Amino acid sequence: MIPRETIDLLTKCGVIPVIRYDNADDGALAIECALRAGFPTVEITLTMPDAVELIREFTRRAEKHQVIGAGTIWNEADCERVLDAGAGYVVSPGLVPGLGQVVHQSHAAYLPGALTPTEIAAALRDGADAVKIFPASSVGPGHLKAVKAVFPGTRFCPTGSISADNMEGWFNAGAAFVGIGNTLYQDATIKAREQNKLVEEARLILDRLRLISR
């Protein structure tokens, strides 16, 4: 996919499952169940053990309509590693100048984090295909509505304490899609490794999403 196609897919999906666990086994289980539930994408964060290998493995197994992303990328070396592993988009919590060029050379999409209008403008100058509003929990939907008014053509992805219960407010404020992390699954279900229940929990997010006018 080219960057715009990737961003279109993320927008159509509406939610990026953000996968971050203390061990690769739990991470792999979470990824597998999110994809089985019907999500066409997951963001695998580099703070998770063996994240690059998980990106490589799930990219290799991905179907044509699926794309695997890489998150928490803070430097060009890590960016090149995840791109080499097949990441279709790269997410950073904040702006890393020059990273957009590295990402686009591999025809991947670039989603840097920003919060203020100044930071958003800098991210767009660096080639952002969409802007991650992070940490979303520190500002709320009203902030997104305000900044979107001065960046009308920009697609925003708020991330940080987003859940099935509050995501509608973010979409009403103008989010193109949202990132959902630790509210995707219950910790007890992960620990019990109940795959069918994990799939059901992930599908609940998609079911709630279908009820939201976007």
Descriptive notes:
- The chain has an 8-stranded parallel sheet with strand order 7-6-5-4-3-2-1-8, sandwiched between helices.
- Helices cover 46% and strands 16% of the residues.
- The radius of gyration is 16 Å and the shape is globular.
- With 214 residues, it is α/β, with parallel strands linked by helices.
- α7 links the parallel β6 (131-133) and β7 (156-158).
- It has a domain at 3-129 and 187-208: TIM Barrel.
Q: What is this entry, summarized?
A:
The chain is α/β, with parallel strands linked by helices and 214 residues long.
Quaternary: single chain
What's the Cα radius of gyration?
16 Å
Lateral arrangement of strands in the main beta sheet: 7-6-5-4-3-2-1-8
Count of β-strands: 8
CATH class of the domain at 3-129 and 187-208: Alpha Beta
Instruction: Classify the helix fraction into a percent range.
Output: 40-55%
- Enter the CATH topology name of the domain at 3-129 and 187-208: TIM Barrel
What is the chain-wise order of helices and strands? HEHEHEHEHEHEHEHEHH
Biggest sheet layout: 8 strands, parallel
Q: What is the average per-residue confidence, as pLDDT, rounded to a whole number? A: 97
Query: Could you state the CATH homologous superfamily of the domain at 3-129 and 187-208?
Result: Aldolase class I
Number of helices: 10
Query: Could you say which structural class the secondary elements and strand pairing correspond to?
Result: alpha/beta
Based on CA inertia axes, which overall geometry fits? globular
Percentage of β-strand residues: 15-25%
Quickly give the CATH architecture of the domain at 3-129 and 187-208. Answer: Alpha-Beta Barrel
Ends: how far apart?
24 Å
Question: Stretches where pLDDT falls below 50 for ≥5 residues?
Answer: none
